[in-house]
Amino acid sequence: MKEEIVYGINSVLEALRGKRRAFELFVAREGQDKRLEKILALVAEKGVAVRQRDKRDIARLCGTEHHQGVALRVEGFAYTDLEDMLARWRETGEPGLLVLLDGIQDPHNLGAIIRTAACAGAHGVIIPTDRAAQVTAAVEKVSAGAVETVPVARVTNLVQAIETLKEAGFWVYGAVGEAADQLYRQNFSGNVVLVIGAEDEGIRPLVRKKCDLLLSVPLHGGVSSLNASVAAGVMLFEVVRQRIGRDSASGR
User: Fold this and answer.
1) pLDDT recorded at residue 117
2) How many Å from the N-terminal Cα to the C-terminal Cα in the chain?
3) Residue 73: pLDDT above 60?
4) Nearest Cα residue to 107 out of 71, 135, 130, 66
5) What is the dihedral of CA 168, 160, 216, 204, to 10 degrees?
6) What does the pLDDT average to over 210-232?
7) Contact between residue 171 and residue 192 where contact means Cβ atoms under 8 Å apart
8) Does the pLDDT value for residue 224 go beyond 80?
9) What residue numbers bound the domain in which 57 lies?
10) Mind listing the pLDDT tens digit for each residue in 97-153?
């Protein structure tokens, strides 16, 4: 059985609240963060062994010093099947909101996008199996544990995944800096997939062709593009803004 180390206060908390089996908790002897009390209460409920270690020992275990004095050995991260993601979305009865990432390489960007997607109430994040960052302990740390709250699907072919999403009733919008159509002029009332491309190359040509519409975020000043995770956040919360506005207008 695959196991991994999750580290950081929020990541460990969410892992303990999630469905993965936890095996051991490592706590720094010097730890004084009050949030550790919540973690210790959860591991006591679950019967998880607690080991005290020096901070340097935990750093070696995690491969980083940014562990906040706590690490958890857990069952490996389980990706969601795309069809299962769609089934879970249908059960909500809500307009769909998904994020599809085309070749995001930076684990920090992936973690930040997953965190933002969770905050925006997205129904899932889709990533490719190859040539892209995968969900690792570093990604979980950056996501502040959001990988435990929003489904992440891994697919071998993004083009086929988009076709599946279209068949399910989604409109697919690609973020492209030079696109003539602007984000703020669109109506996101239906089921929405937002496609974010790789940090350097953007959305690949074949994936672009499958998008129903390519959108740009209007920029001012001397910088020509947004960071991938920032672009995802801007687009996600424009969808959220529009949906809140419609709900308010309808009295919901």
Assistant:
1) 98
2) 46
3) yes
4) 135
5) 180
6) 88
7) yes
8) no
9) 3-75
10) 999 999 999 999 999 999 999 999 999 999 999 999 999 888 998 998 899 999 999
145 vs 12, 40, 47, 201, CA distance in Å?
A: 7, 17, 21, 28
In this model, does residue 90 exceed pLDDT 80? yes
Sole residue written with tokens 């990706």: 79
How does DSSP assign 118-150, residue by residue?
Answer: HHTT-SEEEEESSSS----HHHHHHTTTGGGTS
pTM: 0.88
Q: How far is CA 53 from CA 83, 87, 101, in A?
A: 42, 43, 38
- The answer to whether the CB of 12 falls within 8 A of the CB of 71 is yes
Residues whose CB is less than 8 angstroms from the CB of residue 13 and which lie 6 or more positions away in sequence, other chains included: 35, 38, 39, 42, 145
Of 27, 29, 28, nearest in space to 40 by CA: 27
How many domains does the structure of the chain reveal? 2
185 and 214 assigned to the same domain: yes
187 shares its domain with 104: yes
